[in-house]
Amino acid sequence: MVKAEQYSGLAPALRQQLAHCIDEEFGHVAFVQEREWAQPDWVLAKYEGKELATFCNVVLRRVLMDGQLYTVAGINNVITPRAFRGRGYASQVLRETEQFIFEELECAHGLLLCADALLPFYSRLGWYKLENCSLRYHQPSGEQLYDSNVMLLSPGQQHSFRPQHINLNGLPW
Length: 173
Ligand SMILES: CC(C)(COP(=O)(O)OP(=O)(O)OC[C@H]1O[C@@H](n2cnc3c(N)ncnc32)[C@H](O)[C@@H]1OP(=O)(O)O)[C@@H](O)C(=O)NCCC(=O)NCCS
Fold this sequence. Notes:
This protein is α+β, with helices and mostly antiparallel strands and 173 residues long. The chain has one domain (2-167): Aminopeptidase (3-Layer(aba) Sandwich). The protein is built from four helices and ten strands; from the N terminus they run βααβββαβαβββββ. It has helices at residues 12-26, 30-33, 89-104, 119-124; strands at residues 2-6, 42-48, 51-65, 68-79, 109-114, 128-129, 134-139, 142-146, 149-153, 165-167. Strands 1, 2, 3, 4, 5, 6, 7, 8, 9 and 10 form a ten-stranded mixed β-sheet that branches. It is globular, with a radius of gyration of 15 Å. Bound molecules: coenzyme A.
């Protein structure tokens, strides 16, 4: 079962557990440590018994794409604790997240930023990479340009929307 919870309403113990998982996976990654990141609005988590088996975060944001504002679901921190990996759990959570962001949150698109290695994983789930797209985001020091992969998810898994200029209008995720 996958549960969607508002991040602001999470029990402190669960919030701590999520932070611990995130730190374990990305605490040593300089690109992550050197930047300020958006706080999530939602967490989608799958439990096995009482144990957290996978989760991902959703940041809701009005994002500028080719000069127009769209309500976007920013997906980040897709994490399966090691003991639960390779069982299809992250794929399941991402499929349920797809339903949640389009049907419940009524987002126009999902958007994630990822390294090359994860492109095939997300592509299998209907996400597509934007080629020749410049993406800007805010940092306390000013606006920055992102130089890795930007992937979108569109309703019905269509791949036709391919903006070339994106401004996240806030911190990245
Ligand atoms: C990526 C991750 C969420 C996958 O979780 P999972 O529950 O095992 O995922 P699924 O069982 O649905 O799918 C497994 C597939 O993920 C892909 N995958 C997992 N880790 C990967 C990695 N480091 N590089 C590339 N692909 C990877 C593989 O295609 C794998 O398929 P395989 O088992 O046939 O090799 C998990 O490995 C994890 O938490 N990794 C660390 C955090 C991370 O990198 N998250 C993504 C941030 S963008």
